[in-house]
Amino acid sequence: MRYLPLTPADRSAMLGVIGAPDIDALFVDVPAAAQLSAPIAGLTPHMTELEVERKLGALARRNMTASDGPFFVGAGAYKHHVPASVDHLIQRGEFLTSYTPYQPEIAQGTLQVLFEFQSQVARLLAMDVANASMYDGSTSMTEAVFMARRVTRRKVARVSSGVHPHYTAVLNTLTRFTDDEIVTRAPDFTPDDDLAALAAAVDADTSCVVVQNPNIFGHVADLTPLADACHAAGALLIVVVTEVVSLGLIKAPGEMGADIVVGEGQSIGNGLNFGGPYLGLFATRDKYVRQMPGRLCGETVDADGKRGFVLTLSTREQHIRREKATSNICTNSGLCALAFSIHMTLLGESGLRKLAALNHARAVQLADRLGRIPGVEVVTRNFFNEFTIRLPQEARPVVRKLAEKGVLAGVSLGRLYPDNAALANGLVVAVTETATDADFDAFEDALDEVLA
Amino acid sequence: MTVSASNHRVVSGAPEAGGAPVTTFTGNRALMLEEPLLFEKGAIDRWGVDLPDVPAVATRLGGLERTAEIGLPGLSEPDTVRHYTRLSRQNYAIDMGIFPLGSCTMKHNPRLNEKMARLPGFADIHPLQPIDTVQGALALIDQLAHWLKTLTGMPEVAMSPKAGAHGELCGMLAIRAAHDAAGSDRRVVLVPESAHGTNPATAAFCGYTVEDIPADARGRVDLAALKARLANGSDVAAVMITNPNTCGLFEPDMIEICAAVHAAGGYVYCDGANFNAIVGRVRPGDLGIDAMHINLHKTFSTPHGGGGPGSGPVVFSAALAPFAPLPFVRKTGDHYELVEEEQAHVSTDHDHSFGRMVAFHGQMGMFVRALSYILSHGNDGLRQVAEDAVLNANYVLASLKDLFSAPFGDAGPCMHEALFSDAFLEGTGLTTLDLAKALIDEGFHPMTMYFPLVVHGAMLIEPTETESKASLDQLIGALRSVANRMLTEDANIFKGAPYLAPRRRLDETAAARKPVLSWQG
Fold first, then answer.
1. Angle between helices A8-18 and B469-488 (to 10 degrees)
2. Which ranges carry the Glycine dehydrogenase C-terminal domain (chain B) (predicted)?
3. On chain A, which terminus has fewer CB atoms closer than 10 Å, C or N?
4. Nearest-by-Cβ selection for B125 from A66, A319, A364
């Protein structure tokens, strides 16, 4: 077998050194009733590389990819062009096959990358400090709510109706058995009402208000008044960003008064991958750093006085603090953070701003075109690269029919809110730099036909 | 970095030339290159991508334009490639040599897995595409699920947890949900002292109080103590047990433990971090467990990537299956469905699901890699994996236990990892940490240090099955040489190690006292 270096002669010699008659003698502690004497039935035996490639290749070909045709699907995961050098560099064995940097003298590569990543994320979100990553945006958001409880010693979290419903579902799941009280609002298309209602609801029991910007419908809003309302009541404002490219064009949460910013970093450097692995971003103000979840990389010096980097403040973490840890997270999204950092380095501030402007301009162009189709209404007033249209009929079947015509048109609100009939005609459309004018034409023509 | 009179820098650990330390202008040492921070090299008006011109449109941002400088430096593509390539060379990695971190299962990461995960049909599909357009992806998840269920002998698996600790949370949430559904208000979870820190942390996040289970003199769960606690166990919701445990030993009483916990009305959560030792030889379901996470980034070779991403699917017994999380894949005829949300009008066999744990469907990229690895090995190869992993660990144990203290070395064979302690260094003033740092100069990544906590000065060595005998012999030789020198030479030599790595020992106390967590320039 190509991954196993031991030869039969090696095995025999090693058993001799151990003083065991055979391999079974090393499994003596396993109860006899649980010992299997042969390979488990009903499973296939080993395969060559070529056989595996054939089998998995056949499965891969049964999927319609985002590059097979016009593609406008977003709602928390975005198709951006990732430069070829990103994937080359993350496949260097020294990055790909290294472990969490617990021995810093021989992990300065990973550690310097994490320090640079934390610095990039903090600046992008306009916050003081970012951690070395979480699993994804949804789990990051839940950790932020837990952190707000620790900081404020209050337990009511008020969640905007514009937060991605899957994120809210994750929060509800993970707080089912904690003391947290999650207050959600029914979704609607009018973000100003939502934000005003949240600001009015903040009270002395509120630990935090959670709001997404741009929100699930694509709306972009000024969160400053909401931040002021939170702070006046002693609550924290948690802002969720699921499309971080937007921060090259619109004000960052930190500039609008956020106390904790969480996000999904997939947009930069990482592919769609059917939903994972993705990259949870987590940032806050300096004064809250000791309440943060997850790993942190910090600067220090070595015995010769040379600058170096280490994992730090680990007394917050599970391997030290056990049941009193700020989080149970151990493995995070290190390689996805590396991909993010490399792509961000290739973009630089100028490139990020241009990429963001390009996304916005293309989205405005498509919104204007779709809005001219009879019966179609663009309901999102201010947006970045994603907006919601209301169709004259239920959107979910329309999306399926468009897919049959080779157009992946977006995410129907019926899929995101299966039990909310009022939203059933809504379709969330995302436009990135990857969409061409021909894609716009195809989308418009196909939608015309399906609605006719 | 010290700068000599000639304005050259003394290179740490460098040999002397003609009686003086070798110096270089750059501070570099041939192939060992110093690399400044991105923030010291880059500029905000520099970039390494070409983008088309932005069409002129009336913006629709509602006056929210970001105007202040963000402060993100860029580099050209050649400088980007160099920056990260140079940084990469300051890392140790499995691709370079044995990485014997106990409990971490650092095995070879086959590149076929990487190739398969990058097929556009897996890498370039969106989690919210219409279900009819992702049938191959759902089929892949279903096939991996079948392997995981069959290898563990468990009837159900939840695929979405993102890592081992997230899987633990999944299992414990299901246990909590099952108790709640039965009207039980049990609030205590028993965890052995040798457990991973994630176990008690996870139990606490499910609203449980954690109590320790003592270990016996052979490094196993003290069955008598456990039974005594369970005799008054009406408050015990679950027991979390790692098997094989973190001392590298199989729990021989596992069947009896599970039976006792069940008789007391509790569930058994098994931490599956060490599944590599038994895959294909033991089905955990046959031992009586109720839930177990599987670290695809350990047993099934998906790369650790410097700290992630991982993937932690959780297998469930029939008792807990109805409480498993959403979403899940369901096959009807030749068609795969993805059951995403709890919908009042849809009746499923997951009516008691505790809900959603992640935004989408889990770590698809890791699923592809794991299935690629599993298919490569097959049912016969996976069994050989466990056998070779256990053989390699026992070879290390047998080759070192005359010199190193091996707390359970006389208690029979170990499983996939060998546990030592620094007791043999008593009187030298040297510890596990010093030995680990000396091993770095020998060109190895050290073993796991100071874990499990039940052994003072623990050193946990997990070679994995992908090491050759020659590789093990070299590690053993280095360990013996270092240990012998520590017992006979001046201790101060070892207090200063490592000498030859890209950095000497780093001041972790200073880093924590006044944290510098981002570039302040």
1. 30
2. 387-485
3. C
4. A66
Asked if A323 and B57 come within 8 Å (Cβ–Cβ), the reply is: no
> From CA B28, how far away is CA B44, in angstroms rounded?
27
pLDDT of residue A165: 96
* Residue B9 confidence (pLDDT): 53
Contact at CB, B125 and A105, closer than 8 angstroms: no
Q: Percent of chain A scored above 90 by pLDDT?
A: 93
Closest-CA distance, B231 to chain A, in angstroms, reads 24
Neighbours of B67 (CB within 10 A): 7
Domain layout of chain A by residue ranges: 84-343, 348-451
Burial tier of A190 (Cβ tally within 10 Å: 0-12, 13-18, 19+): middle
Q: What is the model's pLDDT at position B20?
A: 78
Which CATH code is given to the segment(s) A348-451? 3.90.1150.10
Which of A26, A106, A273 has its CB closest to that of B501? A106
Question: Domains in chain B, start-ordered, CATH in brackets?
Answer: 112-372 (3.40.640.10), 384-510 (3.90.1150.10)
For residues B137 and B125, is the Cβ–Cβ distance under 8 A? Answer: yes
| Whole-number Å distance between alpha carbons of A199 and A230 | 7
Does B92 contact chain A (CB < 8 Å)? yes
ipTM above 0.90, yes or no: yes
pTM of full prediction above 0.95: yes
Taking only the tens place, the pLDDT of each residue in B217-251 is 888 999 999 999 999 999 999 999 999 999 999 99
Positions of E strands within B156-219: 156-158, 188-192, 209-213
Taking CA B409 as the corner, what is the angle to CA A16 and CA B210, rounded to the nearest 5 degrees?
135
B195, HSE (Cβ side, Cα atoms, 13 Å): 32
Low-confidence stretches of chain B (pLDDT beneath 50): 1-8, 344-347
**pLDDT for A216:** 97
Q: How far is CA B11 from CA A302, B1, B26, B30, in A?
A: 13, 8, 10, 10
Other Cβ atoms less than 10 A from the Cβ of B6: the count is 9
On the CB side of B477, CA atoms within 13 Å amount to: 8
Residue B471 with chain A: CB contacts under 8 Å:
5
pLDDT of A61-70, one tens digit each?
999 999 999 9
Has domain A84-343 been given CATH number 3.40.50.300?
A: no
